[in-house]
């Protein structure tokens, strides 16, 4: 017999109403209780059925989308591509965000499955032994990852080579004469993309015989750069001459914080971002960045997902090309630093 919401409540030692609140993403549930319920859902392989139909036979012509953030334009670009392809094939979208909280991924997927989406496109913190992905696999729900680094786990994914692109940023800065380098990144636990970019960045720099760059983790949502950056530049002999930021929104915030410190970009310090969001080309200085084709990523991922849903052949791993846009925010190493 298939597990019910009552079985989940009994295993988690909570009320049925509490389980329902967790499934419906209510904020009135304590985090510890939410975790107990999510673990019970996973253990029982429970899938809520809001429309009263079996998941394997439902045809709702709807797809789910789970992204880390609604505030970062790079994800909006991907959703635009997803929506374009979905609409062309008669599907509608339901989407939600996790705000870079890995524990919310299972809750997001569970809620979407409650509305009988036929498949899900998602970005997760870490695809390895991921509860949300395990739930999809157990219930044979088609899914495709976007942005996540391709891994040995062989999840269907449409992405770029984040390791290679991080290495490309390092090489660009080395070519400009920078050897005192640093990376400002959102929390690595919340993003396998950031971890992969760091790997490529660090490996390229150390392989060239230069010192390991300074790595600084900040919160994706509230990075608090006015507190974090000043100590890094307190000593001009050790201060970096260039910064690699793990996404463009962070890079834009870093440039603002540097300006409040009296540092000019790129004359005093260079900054390179990652994503290629449109606003970066309209700033002063224009933003140097890695451009990943987010709109196309969404298009291709939706095509792959729908082919899977319809029983057609599809490529499990698609690596799209990226380019490095040289904007005004990255320049040659300052002459005063060369003399030091």
CATH topology of the largest domain: Rossmann fold
CATH class of the largest domain reads Alpha Beta
Count of beta strands: 12
Order of helices and strands: HHHEHEHEHEEHEHEHEHEEHEEH
Cα(first) to Cα(last) distance is: 73 Å
Rg, Å, rounded? 22 Å
Biggest sheet record: 6 strands, parallel
**Shape, principal axes of CA atoms:** globular
Q: How many domains is the backbone divided into? A: 3
What portion of the residues fall into strands of 2 or more residues? 15-25%
What is the topology, as strand order, of the major beta sheet? 2-1-3-4-5-11
The SS-based structural class is alpha/beta
Q: Give the proportion of residues in helices.
A: 40-55%
Describe the structure.
Helix 4 (73-88) packs parallel to helix 11 (294-309), helix 7 crosses helix 8 and helix 9 crosses helix 10 (248-260). With 340 residues, the protein is of the alpha/beta class. It has twelve helices and twelve strands. The protein is globular.
Characteristic terms for this protein:
alpha/beta, 12 strands, 340 residues, 3 domains, Rossmann fold, 434 Repressor (Amino-terminal Domain)
